[in-house]
Structure formats: C-alpha cells, structure tokens
C-alpha cells in the first residue's frame, strides 16, 4: 500500500520550506509510507475500551508539601561573609554604571 507519493513529499517539502534533492524525495516517501503503515497497525490493535493516556503508569507528585520553617537570622547569614555593608553582602562592583 503506497499512500505517500513522491509529489506529495515534494509538496510537503515546499510547504515546510525544505530543499530536498530528487533521491531524498524517494527516500522520504518510503519512510513516510512505513510510518503511516505502523500507525495504522497500532490503530487496529488499540482497544476501544482503553482510554488514551500520556503515560503507561500513573504519575504521583513526589514533592513534599510546603511548610513554613524558620530561616537564618541576618546575623547568622552574614557571619561568614568576607564583607558586609548595611546588613547585606558587599560584593565588588562589576558594572561601571552608577546606582
């Protein structure tokens, strides 16, 4: 069953703005034919009573719930900083712009 012709592949290539050589048109026509046949076989096997899914196994959320916890006090956070200015980390200027 040859569903995709060389002319159809050339038309698709033009729509996709792809430049394909003559040998590529024949090659892709055969490949697209195989893909369509494979999809048709899967469609035959698929049972109507099985709902479509995106994953074979159910997904569960692996993240823990958000809980409010005490954080570091500013003095503790800045204790090991090499330089501190106005209760903030002091870092070297990397831009020449004025703040």
Automatic annotation (TrEMBL):
Reaction(s) catalysed (UniProt annotation): L-glutamyl-tRNA(Gln) + L-glutamine + ATP + H2O = L-glutaminyl-tRNA(Gln) + L-glutamate + ADP + phosphate + H(+); L-aspartyl-tRNA(Asn) + L-glutamine + ATP + H2O = L-asparaginyl-tRNA(Asn) + L-glutamate + ADP + phosphate + 2 H(+)
A Pfam match: GatC
Residues forming coiled coils: none
Annotated GO MF terms: asparaginyl-tRNA synthase (glutamine-hydrolyzing) activity; ATP binding; glutaminyl-tRNA synthase (glutamine-hydrolyzing) activity; transferase activity
Regions crossing the membrane: none
GO biological process: glutaminyl-tRNAGln biosynthesis via transamidation; regulation of translational fidelity; translation
Entry EC no(s): 6.3.5.-
Keywords for this protein: ATP-binding, Ligase, Nucleotide-binding, Protein biosynthesis, Transferase
UniProt family annotation: Belongs to the GatC family.
Function statement: Allows the formation of correctly charged Asn-tRNA(Asn) or Gln-tRNA(Gln) through the transamidation of misacylated Asp-tRNA(Asn) or Glu-tRNA(Gln) in organisms which lack either or both of asparaginyl-tRNA or glutaminyl-tRNA synthetases. The reaction takes place in the presence of glutamine and ATP through an activated phospho-Asp-tRNA(Asn) or phospho-Glu-tRNA(Gln).
PANTHER family, sorted: GLUTAMYL-TRNA(GLN) AMIDOTRANSFERASE SUBUNIT C, MITOCHONDRIAL
Protein name per Swiss-Prot or TrEMBL: Aspartyl/glutamyl-tRNA(Asn/Gln) amidotransferase subunit C
Primary gene name: gatC
